[in-house]
Amino acid sequence: MSKKETIAVFFGGVSPEHDISIVTAISSVIRPLELDGRYQVLPIYISKKGIWYSDSSFKKIETFSGGGISELLDKLKPVSVTFDGGLTIEKPGLKRSKIKVGIAFPAMHGGNGEDGSLMGLLRMANIPFVGCDMPASVIAMDKLLAKQVAEANGTPVVKYEYLYADAFAEKPDKIIGELEKSLEYPLFVKPTHLGSSIGISRVSNRKELQNGIEVALYYDNKVLVEEAVPNLVEVTVPIIGNEVMMPALVERPLINDNNVFDFDTKYMNSGKKSGGKHGSQGYSELPAKLPGKLYEASIDIARSVYKAAECEGIARVDLLIDSKSNTIYFNEINPMPGSLYSHNWRKSGISNVELVAKLIELARQRYEKHKKLEKTFSTNFLKQF
Amino acid sequence: MKIVVNNQLINYSDEGKGDVVLLLHGWGASLQTFDAMTNSLVRNYRVVRLDFPAFGGSPRPTNSWSVGDYADNIIGFLDKIGIKKVAVVIAHSFGGRVTIKLAGEGKLKPGKIILIDSGGIRHSSSPRQRAYKLLAKTGKQVFRIPGLNKVGDAARRRLYQGAGAMDYFEVGDEMRETFIRIINEDVRDIAANIQHPTLIIWGEDDKETPVVDGEIFHDKISGSKFKIITHAGHFAYLDQPDEVMKEIESFLK
User: Fold this and answer.
1) How far apart are CA A155 and CA B105, in angstroms?
2) How high does pLDDT run on average in chain B?
3) Which residues in chain A belong to E strands, given as ranges?
4) Are residues A109 and A144 in the same domain?
5) Is the Cβ pair A75, B80 closer than 8 Å?
6) Best to test chain B binding among A53, A70, A202, A268 (most B CBs inside 10 Å)
7) What ipTM does the predicted assembly reach?
8) pTM of the predicted model, to two decimals?
9) How far is it, in rounded angstroms, from Cα A355 to Cα A345?
10) Which residues in chain B are contacts of A211 at CB distance < 8 A?
11) A205 with A337, same domain?
12) Among candidate residues A227, A242, A262, the one where a domain is terminated
């Protein structure tokens, strides 16, 4: 019997979305991969301190939910990584083992992972990996950059401004004055690099704007301030694919009393408002009941931005709709949707096992395509020295 | 909702209209433990709750804090959200310790104070506990020896458990200094300065802060009322919510 190929699943990380990444990795990646049975699954857990570990117990959510993870990490030694024309993980200990990684599956959320940094590392290691490549991840994980890309692509975006921490610390009143001149309340204040709606505030006056900027700056050095969309209907479109895209169903998440689709609404309220089941699977209307041609138009815009930002593998495009004027605005791209949005794919007819298999296939296709490109250039340059 | 107070992010909630009731939770708890109480109070009051730094949705402070630092943070928070007058403070355990500091030192002048199973009395340890604590402390050095350092935390956990100091262990390295500073500060003499009408509620079976602590505060705070709740432990307001709410409503009339 031939040896199974090893898939390294990366999760955790130094990010406010560390815990969400654990759930994504275990429930929506590792479990389906084990059910698939074709691969050897190697879980690589990156602790909140940024230390890399691997242990078979990381395949179970109880390892992390039971409260004993600190004790376990104290006993484990970190893994070491060798770039040997590929990627080899060495697990220390009495049963020291070296494992050659065939394919990587980043299941990271937020900075230091989803933002392109891990993808850069995997590119350098020259192995196929699942999901968006480095440039698309960088664009997607910067809300401002993504907006600018969409704008250049001709996609409507809401009116926005942005600010940097240093400038705000120096002249807060001047910056707030300029924002008030340019934009009309109510406004949304967002850290540009964070996902899962962390650090986002909806503000209606100067005092709230000041507080909202301070909160956003607690998480990020760059802050996006944008006008709220009136008569808001918020929808999201998960897409998989490289050149050929396949959208899932348009989904309408619920928002909380503060008009923010925030972390608690997404992950903590267990979908109470919709009478749903658990976490991110119970908070939405699926498929979204959109009038007229808005449903199809939402998919078209999502596809257009996915392509413009050079997304590959998987991403989720969030849109804001003014339900009176029927204007659809691009909001943001999420290059690694929480739990892969497997609940949506399932309803679209693609099981979690099939979804993960498709993503691996897409990763291989991209890798093979890149491999064909000439990457060296022969010269006589060094002979002159 | 979140707000930044002197570079510290604070998670809070602000519900209802009317006179302000401020709810302060205990060590290791969060504002959510007041959900049921808030649902009752919000009919007549503006109920403001926050997560103390290091708990709930408020991240850890970057350095170790004293009770005074936590008290100052409350003042900064109230100022930031524009609250000038607090009608009532209802505080549990560690929140009580902070409230005594605030009111006893004149930093906050609430109309009324309700302390539930409040912290703030420092007890001398039993000989067994002292022996364990010493062992845990020396053990810390022993377990730094290469080869032994990997079993250190598990062994230390057992030692702290025996010493009745799991709170200390569970808070993590960064917060241990804060925890030590806090439990070492006895606030009974500060409580003696409190002139505000005060209701002291205590769970009869409270093991963390025994009923005698409540008696001490009752003795120190002139004119205070003392109510013992039967079949209730350290979280009296969760163990007997109706009974505690009845006492609160009667005191606030």
Assistant:
1) 59
2) 86
3) 5-12, 39-46, 52-53, 80-82, 88-91, 97-100, 103-106, 160-164, 187-191, 201-203, 222-227, 232-241, 245-247, 252-253, 284-285, 313-322, 327-334
4) no
5) no
6) A70
7) 0.72
8) 0.79
9) 7
10) 3-4, 80
11) no
12) A227
**Nearest-Cα residue of chain B relative to residue A199:** B2
- Please indicate if any CB of chain B lies within 8 Å of the CB of A243: no
Are A124 and A207 members of one domain?
no
Nearest residue on chain B to A68, judged by CA atoms? B154
Domains, chain B, in order of start with CATH, read 2-123+185-252 (3.40.50.1820), 127-180 (no CATH)
The residue of chain A nearest to residue B8, with distances taken between CA atoms, is A218
Taking only the tens place, the pLDDT of each residue in B94-131 is: 999 999 999 999 999 999 999 999 999 987 765 555 56
Q: How many CB atoms lie within 10 A of CB A329?
A: 21
Element (H, E) at B90: strand B88-92
Contact B74, B98 (CB under 8 A): yes
A272 touches B at CB < 8 Å: no
Give the relative orientation of helices B152-162 and B127-142 as an angle to the nearest 10 degrees: 170
A74, B157: Cβ pair inside 8 Å? Answer: no
Contact B2 A207 (CB under 8 A): no
Q: Is residue A255 domain-shared with residue A198, that is, in the same domain?
A: no
**Chain A window 55-74: which residues touch B at a Cβ cutoff of 8 Å?**
70-71, 74
